[in-house]
């Protein structure tokens, strides 16, 4: 139940991006309504690899700005949410047959350290073959030439990070509706005038479409035709119990079959293995981990850690999500940018759609979006303070 029917901004979608936008907008004094068709964070956010990271592989695509932004945001999240975001040691084993050899990995590690200046985490270290096998005895020794160790961060339960943002937004006056589906966006005089949900309506000066892979479904509820924005890819993971040869810290391995990066990560006393990267054109509500994806992830893990002997019977759980990436035609999935875009709609100047983005950079995306909201409102924006005000522990609150 909402206390008013008129707002400065309505945010549709309470994943990490929508929750972050609602928090920032409320903290800057705007009247905010946040709406989600389910629970906060239960979509793409909870289906992630649960890393807060700079995006080491983005260096291959020369996205230095994205890596720097991600590393800066990683440091901010370690500071404002230390109860949720923890340092994570990650090992990259290097093999003779690897697409990325020792020199390439070392160069990438040096650049990663340079781009993360001012960080609190240690710099990378390189290890010889002997040192690697001594410390990570479960690794496949065939063709091993050494390894690299570096640090990123992990959020074991990203839904708690979402809830921390939602609860903070409420503390600053935002209203929140969950299990509430937006059914229509009315247009009057060239602007979205009202948002309908259930049998109720609300008005706002600015509407933010932060529905992730459901963005195009939201746009279908507007009587003005919009181009397709999302060209999502599916990422699937499997969860298994500790197994013979399981690493004490995370592994970042190059798949033998297609050279894709795969993470094997200690998680909640279990192991998280993923991810795949496959085009997805269906309904995000129906996304599932396919049998071939399970076989792929288990096979690559068994090749990396021969004593594991993982089978389908080893699986405790699987999950999949759709990355809300931009439409890119036939571009290779791995080369699609993970940068975010705030899409403006020329025919509807008070509607903004959030395309792309990463769990790691949600806060900076929100800051950019709220700055733009104030421009749309024709008001001077108060300074953003989300980089300095700590998030509380969502477990201490009931939503």
- What global shape is seen? elongated
SS-based structural class? Answer: alpha+beta
Corresponding CATH architecture of the largest domain: 2-Layer Sandwich
Order of helices and strands: EHEEHEHEHEHEEEEHEEEEEHEEEH
Q: What top-tier CATH class of the largest domain fits best? A: Alpha Beta
- Helix count from the secondary structure assignment: 8
What's the CATH superfamily of the largest domain, by name? D-Amino Acid Oxidase, subunit A, domain 2
Based on CA atoms alone, the radius of gyration comes out at 22 Å
What is the end-to-end distance?
14 Å
Mean pLDDT across the residues is: 94
Fraction of helical residues: 10-25%
Explain how this protein is built.
With 399 residues, the protein is an alpha+beta fold. It has 2 domains: 6-45 and 158-230 and 336-396, FAD/NAD(P)-binding domain, CATH 3.50.50; 70-154 and 231-327, D-Amino Acid Oxidase, subunit A, domain 2 (D-Amino Acid Oxidase, Chain A, domain 2). It has 8 helices and 18 strands. The strands form 2 sheets. Strands 3, 4, 5, 6, 11, 12, 13, 14, 15 and 16 form a 10-stranded mixed beta sheet that branches. A hairpin with a 2-residue loop joins strand 9 and strand 10 (200-209). Helix 1 runs parallel beside helix 5 and helix 1 packs across helix 8. The chain is elongated.
